[in-house]
Design a protein that fits this description.
Layout: E1 4-8, H1 13-24, E2 28-35, H2 50-64, E3 68-72, H3 74-90, H4 97-116, E4 121-123, E5 128-134, E6 146-152, H5 169-173, E7 175-176, H6 184-194, H7 215-219, E8 228-232, H8 249-253, E9 264-269, E10 292-298, E11 303-308, E12 316-323, E13 327-329, E14 341-347, E15 355-362, E16 365-375, E17 382-387, E18 390-396
Parallel strand pairs: 1-2, 1-4, 2-3, 4-7, 8-11
Antiparallel strand pairs: 5-6, 6-18, 8-9, 10-11, 12-16, 13-18, 14-15, 14-17, 15-16, 17-18
Length: about 400
């Protein structure tokens, strides 16, 4: 009996080829389009061509001769992703809605909908791979049972494993990534030869509801603009003297705390919650000898702290901290116990090169100390750690 797979058809070439490959491999394939956004209170309809995407997905399904349906997940998407996103920005943190969308929508709500259709698996067009292995000895209750490894996609320019860093073993057990072994040019070549309508379609940019919209414009739909001081902090400020001891995990990972008196007011901004650590564009403050970068935001007092030049010490930290509640291990059998440490490679944002680091598990959470200081460690973003090409775990940066 054929295994049934529901493919999340987005209307793009990657998911189209995923569906084609699964059918070629003998699966019973169903195409399903997720409609995630149509909130009229945020006027971005011209930047969210979901109707075109839905039509493209339907055309591909018809061409492949597979059943097709659309599912409206906009209510859940608003509650779980968009509302969370606004709340995080309001609090001065920078969320990653792509990671959340995979955890909360594609591999939760969408997965459950697929299972009601009798699906054995769900599949997406992610450039990532999944392999099966057996649990290690540190999980005796699961020893000998299947463990699912989340691996980087073969295409180093398109690897999307980072976006899947919050998935669980249960979610991975139901997931297929048919194009994970392919390079992007190979995917387009397959689409071309198969006569898929999406073969030459451009890749979508970011999430549908953000698209090419200037993020502050989007946030201003919900978060009020409010003029505040923009303050430049000198490189010599006393705040950078902390964290010199490699034995002091707390000082190495604690975000810098700035005071107005430590710097000079050089202009105004429209709201500290519109900016993120490391941001250079959109500051609209000139007359400085070097480019300005955001090095801190104080949403309580509506102050934006900045540094001159990309070598400013305020842009760099040796490590980061992840509280227990925000710590997640894809490989539960490799989870560190309190007092243990482990060497990994990690990234703090998508497309950032993986950097050597040491993880230290303590009672309060997980400390990640990098071999060399990292630029723009940003609260609210996800840090993901790997062993070689396998993603082991992740967590929200505090």
């Amino acid at each position: 009996m054929k295994k049934r797979v529901v493919v999340g058809l987005s209307g793009g070439v990657d998911s189209s080829v995923a569906a084609y490959l699964l059918k070629e491999q003998g699966y019973e394939v169903i195409g399903m389009f997720m409609k995630n956004w149509h909130d009229d209170s945020v006027t971005i309809s011209n930047e969210c061509p979901w109707l075109d995407d839905s039509n493209d997905a339907m055309i591909v399904a018809q061409h492949l001769g597979i059943p097709f349906q659309a599912i409206d997940l906009s209510k859940e998407y608003k509650e779980r992703i968009v509302d969370y996103m606004f709340a995080e920005y309001q609090a001065g943190r920078t969320p990653n809605p792509d990671v959340l969308c995979n955890r909360e929508i594609k591999f939760d709500i969408f997965l459950k909908a697929a299972l009601t259709l009798g699906a054995d698996y769900v599949a997406t067009g992610h450039y990532a791979r999944r392999e099966e292995t057996e649990a290690g000895a540190c999980l005796p209750d699961r020893q000998g049972k299947k463990i699912y490894r989340l691996l980087a996609g073969k295409d180093p320019n398109k690897d999307q494993s980072y976006f899947l860093c919050q998935l669980t073993q249960e979610q991975l057990s139901k997931a297929l990534f048919p194009i994970g072994e392919l390079l992007k040019p190979e995917v387009r070549d397959i689409a071309q030869k198969a006569g898929l309508a999406t073969a030459n379609k451009k890749d979508s940019q970011g999430l549908c509801f953000v698209g090419k919209v200037h993020l502050p414009d989007f946030l201003q739909q919900r978060l009020a603009s409010k003029k505040g001081k923009a303050i430049v902090i000198p490189e010599t400020a006393n705040v950078y003297s902390n964290g010199q001891s490699l034995d002091d995990l707390v000082s190495l990972t604690k975000p810098y705390a700035y005071q107005q008196s430590e710097g000079e007011v050089v202009g105004e901004h429209n709201g500290a919650h519109f900016y993120t650590i490391g941001q250079r564009k959109g500051l609209n403050i000139g007359g400085q000898p070097k480019p300005l970068f955001v090095i801190g935001t104080d949403t309580g007092h509506n102050i934006l702290y900045m540094g001159l030049g990309e070598d400013h010490p305020g842009l760099y930290r040796k490590g980061l901290f992840i509280p227990n509640k925000d710590e997640h291990w894809v490989r539960e059998d490799l989870k560190l116990s309190v007092g243990e440490s482990g060497n990994y490679i990690a990234r703090i944002r998508y497309r950032q090169p993986l950097e050597p680091c040491t993880l230290h598990k303590r009672e309060e959470g997980l400390y990640i100390i990098f071999d060399r200081p990292q630029k723009a460690i940003t609260p609210g973003q996800f840090a993901a750690w790997y062993d070689g090409e396998e993603l082991i775990g992740s967590g929200v940066i505090s």
